[in-house]
């Protein structure tokens, strides 16, 4: 049966790969909505190819420019803007599945809108779960809406849990590549460049998540997301470094059995599984060659030189609005690093300072969460400014 899909973040890495999967199976998937922040060049081309019924350009000026460009063309979609436009598109009446591939906690409100509308949510926006996991969990319980994780690690865990009893799960094991700087000391990391940090050894991803992978913050955010997605205590979620990135994650059961999900390092595999679930479609790339892989190795994560992972565990241990502060501060610090305003090692230092200053609030109140994020960003920006000066 044809699935109608909304793609939030259609110009990013996950969005583009989702469109690639959709175009391979036009008889199965139909795009009814697309959303970008400012990338109207990409969106204009997608409108021509996919003919969605509605699109969102968050930036108001860019939305006006796109409106001028497509005026007079055929099949003009409804054009929305702002965060409210994202929420409206996430609840589109014709959508069967909403893929949230937005970058950052801006994805929280659209996540909630999709769940409140009873949509199946294909989630590739971990930040919304980190910032508002308690709120998301409450809305999901109230509506019964389904969340299908898109990130390779959570998608792997989801697949390993199919057909299993939750009460028999002993722990989740989230794998990490270790990023481009695995093995370096903190002092050696002080001089790394943006260009070096963006050269991930295994995955092709957007700039923000690539930097998060380099700092190990990405694994920390994934631990918090897994806690909310699978309703398990953080003490039952471990991280292990697996440089080959062939095992995407594992689940250990009470009897000592461990299920591992293995596959190519290509996001089209989990994306396609999410879109076609519960069915499976032919792979979009060749089978994994174990002889070519040769060996699989594992290491403990180095939290001494990459402390962001430890800060994430501390945030989820403290609970309340600490994860929201962790996420908001990280977003500001990563953006400053990508703009070459601060050093790579300033990222964890800024996060540590903001967390230590935080006074926690009610994590189930959206207004409090959003205000907490705002204040955390302001303080992080002051710290960034002091480093620039």
Question: What does this molecule look like?
Answer:
Residues 147-230 form the 1-deoxy-D-xylulose 5-phosphate reductoisomerase C-terminal domain. One of its GO terms (biological process) is isopentenyl diphosphate biosynthetic process, methylerythritol 4-phosphate pathway involved in terpenoid biosynthetic process. NADPH binds at residues 12-14, 38, 125, 127, 206. By secondary structure, the chain is an alpha/beta fold. Among the domains are: 3-150, NAD(P)-binding Rossmann-like Domain (Rossmann fold, 3-Layer(aba) Sandwich); 319-389, Rna Polymerase Sigma Factor, Chain: A (Orthogonal Bundle), CATH 1.10.1740. Helix content is 48%, strand content 15%. The chain has helices at 13-24, 40-50, 60-70, 82-90, 108-116, 126-143, 152-161, 186-189, 194-197, 207-215, 217-230, 268-276, 290-293, 308-318, 322-338, 346-357, 366-388, and strands at residues 3-8, 29-36, 54-57, 78-81, 97-100, 120-123, 147-149, 169-176, 237-241, 247-253, 258-262. Strand 2, helix 2 and strand 3 form a beta-alpha-beta unit. The longest helix has 23 residues, at 366-388. It is globular, with a radius of gyration of 20 Å. The model has no long low-confidence stretch (mean pLDDT 96).
Keywords:
7-stranded parallel β-sheet, 389 residues, 17 helices, Rna Polymerase Sigma Factor, Chain: A, 15% strand, globular, 4-stranded mixed β-sheet, alpha/beta
